[in-house]
Fold:
Amino acid sequence: MARIWTGEELGRHVAALRGRRLAVIGYGNQGRAQALNLRDTGLKVTVGNTDDAYAASAGADGFEVAPIAEAAAHGEILLVLLPDEVQPGVFEHEILPALSPGRTVSFASGYTVAFGLVRPPEGVDVCLVAPRMIGRGIRQLALEGRGFPVLVGAEANASGRALETALGIAAGIGAGGAGGCAVESSFREEATIDLFSEHTWAAATVALLGACCETLIEAGVSPEAAILETYASGEIGEIGRAIAELGLVEQLALHSTTSQYGHLTRGPEYVGEQVRAKLRRALAEIQDDSFAREWTAEQRAGLPRFRELLRRARAAPFLQQEDSLYRRLGRRGEGAERQGTT
Ligand code: NDP
Structure:
């Protein structure tokens, strides 16, 4: 069983950060939310960013902002909150020179360290504090006094207190609020399960929802009704919340008996031995590094396959109906609400 810290027990670990200089590198989805929450916990944070719109946003939020190399040199604890694809380059040129022994570098995802794309030097603590929550949620939940789950770990523990620091960061970014927790993990485990979710149920859900819409429309259902029923109503989000709160099967109690009967009789048919074999293959591709190698090669080639697949996905005919519907509902076009961190 993994070690787990919850509520006040986790919140107390914030003491591990007191008196230590924090630098948040990157002010995007995670960077902004984590920096704001750390500051609300009473910690002093410097933001490191290229001098552009994100830096301006950090300045407008009242943070001291410096170029990445300067913020890295200033911070005793560096939270690297840059996209995984840009981390290797920025790390090597702007962060590594600042990582003298005794410093701590922390990541919100295990990917780059687990697959050897970023190699922190000897003598520093290397922490993992990986929220299972998007940046917007991290900020909003903290404002409501609620927490969220994070995976924490220590890849290198030069000081002997790396896990303590990781727990301090988890507490400082608000994970210890009501309902939150920190679960002990590792860079490799975090990267594996994150990729596994992306490659299996998340990817398959998007593909299946599209196929459901196409099947209904082919059978004469109006695109508006088909798309609203399948995903645009937001019911899918409510079911996700119910699964998180009540459990995978217990949430069925919120559905009608007719719906429960349909779930129980039809659902398992989709997960036969063929699908289980696909799941095992997806896991093997992650564990033997072949996915990471494929993705690195694709990025180096300038993303040709990625762009082509996105073009094909966008060309599905029913998405034109989605576009008209979303415009009618005010979700797209002029006046549509901008998505961002609270
Ligand atoms: P974002 O895409 O939101 O990061 C944007 C930030 O990165 C900006 O500050 C941007 O500044 C900076 N940046 C982008 N490109 C460069 C570059 N070439 N050089 C220097 N800075 C750059 O990232 P996320 O917040 O989504 O992800 C950060 C980390 O958190 C990742 O490790 C991710 O896996 C992890 N994570 C993300 C989650 C999410 O919900 N998004 C959830 C859990 C973990 P500028 O463009 O101004 O240079």
